[in-house]
Amino acid sequence: MSDDDWLANTRTSYDTVAVSYAAMLGDALADAPYERGVLGIFAELVHAGGGGPVADIGCGPGRITSHLHRLGLDPFGVDLSPGMIAVARQEHPDLRFEVGSMTALDIAGGALGGLLAWFCLIHVPEDAIPGVLAEFHRVLRPGGVALLAFHAGEGTRHKTDGYGGHPMDVYVHRRTSAQVAAWLRTAGFTVELEMLHHGDARKEGAFLIARTPLH
């Protein structure tokens, strides 16, 4: 599958489910203490590093972007789906959201104090991962902090519907924490934290915090 194919399919799928996705997951963090905890660690590290803009990549309807704002960060959201961005702008009019692709971010090099990729790398095929992580490295300033969250494990499944039964056409890739950590190191990051959440065997979550070198 070419870059154009998986990007187009992902964009169309999330345009289709944007409204129902937002309705179903809007308050999901309220029952997710581990996720709130790792987001809190991320926020503390960004603050300790001097703050600065934080990009929420694959932000969807902006629920995590809004949470980062409540933690005192200066976040903005980027998502491939114009439908998701429209919902985010409607639900969080005080925050900034932009349509964009993690494969070619419209962000200046070294502009960010932090970057979040919250369960969005799950749709990126393996051969595109190095380029995406290179983009993350490029836009973070020296010492900048990245938090990656993804479905842990191995294997790929084709998701043909979701979020209320709407049609979708995306592949969901599970990766081990060790594999993603290795990719991050190859991209020039230092991995500082690996956490695996066993809350639901069907949806185990992995969380990695990494940093760009100071020099």
Describe it.
- With 215 residues, the protein is α/β, with parallel strands linked by helices.
- It has one domain: 3-Layer(aba) Sandwich (Rossmann fold), CATH 3.40.50.150.
- The protein has six helices and nine strands; from the N terminus they run H-H-E-H-E-H-E-E-H-E-E-E-H-E-E.
- The chain has helices at residues 3-25, 33-48, 63-70, 82-91, 129-139, 177-186, and strands at 53-57, 74-79, 96-99, 112-118, 140-151, 156-162, 166-173, 190-197, 205-211.
- A seven-stranded mixed beta sheet has the order 3-2-1-4-5-9-8, sandwiched between helices.
- The N and C termini lie far apart (37 Å).
- The model has no long low-confidence stretch (mean pLDDT 93).
CATH class reads Alpha Beta
What is the multimeric organization of the chains shown?
single chain
Topology as a string of helices (H) and strands (E): HHEHEHEEHEEEHEE
CATH 4th-level superfamily:
Vaccinia Virus protein VP39
Strand content: 25-35%
Instruction: Label the CATH architecture.
Output: 3-Layer(aba) Sandwich
Distance between the termini: 37 Å
Total of DSSP H or I helical runs spanning 4+ residues = 6
**Poorly predicted ranges (pLDDT <50, ≥5 residues)?**
none
Radius of gyration: 16 Å
What structural class do helix, strand and pairing data support?
alpha/beta
Structurally, how many domains make up the residues?
Answer: 1
Share of helical residues: 25-40%
CATH topology: Rossmann fold
In total, the number of strands is: 9
Rounded average pLDDT: 93
* Spatial order of the strands forming the largest sheet: 3-2-1-4-5-9-8
User: What can be said about the biggest beta sheet?
Assistant: 7 strands, mixed
